[in-house]
């Protein structure tokens, strides 16, 4: 089971941004792992882009949410083509990003507060 939540306005923001942030929270709910994707604009303002609820935290889950974002963007006549992915050092995220956008830069950083 996968649940993907976003809005047209959030997809438009994601398509304008070059910086995508991605992380999965630990199994906080009984449905699985919330994978949270956000964006940062040039002013450093963060915006939630979408949330996926997945049963696991593997490469295919991260890739699925990226692919789905691209598909939803296409439905609105937009292109989802980020230049930078910011996330922790999880190899699952790195592999998904490499499959989704081989030429983009992967930045390892995530502040847990």
- Alpha-carbon Rg, integer: 13 Å
Distance between the termini: 29 Å
Topology as H/E string?
Answer: EHEEEHEHE
If you average the pLDDT, what whole number results?
Answer: 80
Task: Extract low-pLDDT stretches.
Answer: none
CATH topology: Nucleotidyltransferase, domain 5
Sheet bearing the most strands, described?
A: 6 strands, mixed
Give the beta-strand count.
Answer: 6
- Broad structural category: alpha/beta
Strand line-up of the largest beta sheet: 1-4-3-2-5-6
Broad CATH class: Alpha Beta
Q: Provide the β-strand percentage band.
A: 25-35%
Continuous helix count = 3
Shape: globular
CATH architecture: 2-Layer Sandwich
| Helix percentage | 25-40%
Q: What number of structural domains do the residues give?
A: 1
Q: How is this structure best described in words?
A:
This is MULE transposase domain-containing protein. It comes from Smittium mucronatum. The chain has 113 residues and is α/β, with parallel strands linked by helices. The protein has 3 helices and 6 strands. It has a single domain (3-108), classed as Nucleotidyltransferase, domain 5 (2-Layer Sandwich), CATH 3.30.420. The protein has helices at 8-16, 59-75, 91-100; strands at 3-5, 19-24, 33-40, 46-54, 84-87, 105-108. Strands 1-4-3-2-5-6 form a 6-stranded mixed beta sheet. α2 (59-75) runs parallel beside α3 (91-100).
